[in-house]
Amino acid sequence: MANIKSAKKRILVIQTKTERNKSIRSRVKTFIKKVDAAIAANDKAAAQAALSNAVSEISKAQSKGVYHANTASRKIARLSKAVAAMN
Fold this sequence. Notes:
This protein is mainly alpha-helical and 87 residues long. It has a domain at 42-87. It has three helices and no strands. It has helices at 5-40, 44-63, 69-84. α1 (5-40) packs antiparallel against α2. The protein is elongated, with a radius of gyration of 17 Å.
């Protein structure tokens, strides 16, 4: 356990940031699951609507530093490709 005041503060700050990042990641995963569910149901309109919401959430997560730019781009590209491949 830390004895120095600044180290104790860093522990608290890291815990706060970790909780925030977990929350954002979980939210992004939920939006991705909605896109996947629409694709599985073969509902193109719902998939496109869910895709735009998911892209927005992924971009927000990237701007907040939760995801690296390349990771966010990869996730968006894979979802877009899956929706575009629908019949």
